[in-house]
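User: Please predict structures.

Assistant: First:
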Amino acid sequence: MAKFRKVPGYHEISHQYVTFVGYRAFRWEFKVLEHGVLVRKVDIFFIDRSRNGWGVLFQAPAAQWATASPRLQATVATIRLHT
């Protein structure tokens, strides 16, 4: 997180602890300029019962976020862990 805060074009939208697939997780949402395109991203990090670290990233160009976000969130909602 600290690395991105220094990147030109970075803008943090939010960060908070959430529950994700039944686990305590950290959710970080931000925009960052990549190759001349402003991209909006959501990262979700958590550790499962077996102590495996997981990260889920979904992103889309910021200009397309309103259209892409519902589809991305629906896809992420289908994630299930079988541990």
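Second:
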Amino acid sequence: MQAKAIMKVLARSVSTALLLIIIFCVAILILEVQTKFVRRIYDEIFLDNRNHYLSCEQLPPEAEVRQVTEEHQDVIREIKQVNPDFVGVEIDNSICPGKADILFWYGIHEDRLRIEGLIAGETFYGIPYRLQNR
């Protein structure tokens, strides 16, 4: 009789644990969909990248991106001089036709820090940008 009681308690404990694990996984999934929390950590820690995670609808028109980059060639030249041949700037319209963002690429983390210091904001003069370690 005592063994049956122990089995019931054990079964109830396992069921409760599984339910809690499922709830935790669903919560993480919802958090990821809304905030890209896991992707941001992966990008930052493992890849040394910075992304904006905007949808195509949220990106500015390509013409606007080109205009802003032309107007701020002095800053772009300064960014490229952080580490010539290992730092670059591109207008990226490859994923969203007609829309674009700016991609700054670099070779080492110190270059990224210097680029971020030159940009000094969440956007490049109102244009979303990404930083990519190549």
